[in-house]
Specification:
By secondary structure, this protein is mainly α. The protein has one domain. The protein is 77% helix and 0% strand. It contains two helices and no strands.
């Protein structure tokens, strides 16, 4: 078995989680399985937050523009 440093293993697991490769979660480390399952969920939440901020900003610009057109 090839030994890697903990930070190298973390990046390898992160790449595997993002890539979405098939993995048997019933074997191996429970912590690794939780990490592999949580990365896509966290990325999804980050993207939802970005879209919410963009949507809010767009709505505020529309309201300001509409108010300025009235005057």
């Amino acid at each position: 078995m090839r030994r890697t440093r903990p930070i190298g293993r973390l990046f390898n697991d992160l790449k595997e989680a993002i890539r979405g490769s098939a993995h048997d979660y019933t074997t191996g480390s429970l912590g690794r399985a939780v990490f592999l399952l949580s990365v896509p969920m966290v990325l999804g939440m980050v993207l939802e937050s970005v879209f919410a901020v963009v949507g809010y900003t767009e709505a505020m610009i529309t309201i300001i523009y509409a108010r300025e057109r009235e005057h």
